[in-house]
Amino acid sequence: MRAPAVLAALALAQPAGADEPSARDAFETELRAAILANGDVIAKALAGQTQMQQHIQNDLSLLEQLAPDLLGGHPIALFTAEDCETCAAAAKELTAITKRYDITFIQHDLSHPQPARWAAALGLTDAPFYVLPEMILNGHMPPVVLEKHLSPKTNPHPTHK
Questions:
Q1: Torsion angle (degrees, nearest 10) of CA 97, 99, 102, 104
Q2: What 3-state DSSP class applies to 73?
Q3: Which of 69, 80, 91, 145 is least enclosed, having the fewest CB within 10 Å?
């Protein structure tokens, strides 16, 4: 119930005539009062952000541990499954991108034990998904998204252009 009050106060960010000292002072007074009256909402929001940062750090640590085996020296891994409707398209698109940038990828089939264990450790169940050294892309990604993460800088000495 307090969140709408905070949002309303923030939505009024700078009222007309805010260049005048009295209008600015009045706005700051109202904003300060709204923040003080709704401190618990703000604290919960900040706590949630801290928890999210911890989840991200945990995921990055896990990726760092798994990357040598999971990536096998490749800049990206694609996880696929036999019953996946978009996996063939994902593999085809990734093949085209990696050829264009003169890089390689490794493909893991979730029906095999080790890729299934990696997927479980990463908390992923549905193919396709992509794993990069510092990122997971869950679901079939449009080529433009993959290209963003697999630009020619991934391979500083490409032989193709």
A1: 80
A2: coil
A3: 69
pLDDT score of 4 more than 70: no
Residue 155: the pLDDT is: 47
User: Does the pLDDT value for residue 42 go beyond 90?
Assistant: no
Kindly report whether the global pTM for this prediction surpasses the value 0.85.
no
Closest by CA to 28, choosing from 18, 38, 37, is 18
Nearest alpha carbon to residue 132 among 113, 93, 109, 106: 106
- Asked whether 78 and 119 are in contact (CB, 8 A), the reply is no
- Half-sphere exposure in the Cβ direction for 85 (13 Å, CA): 0
**What's the rounded mean pLDDT across residues 119-131?**
93
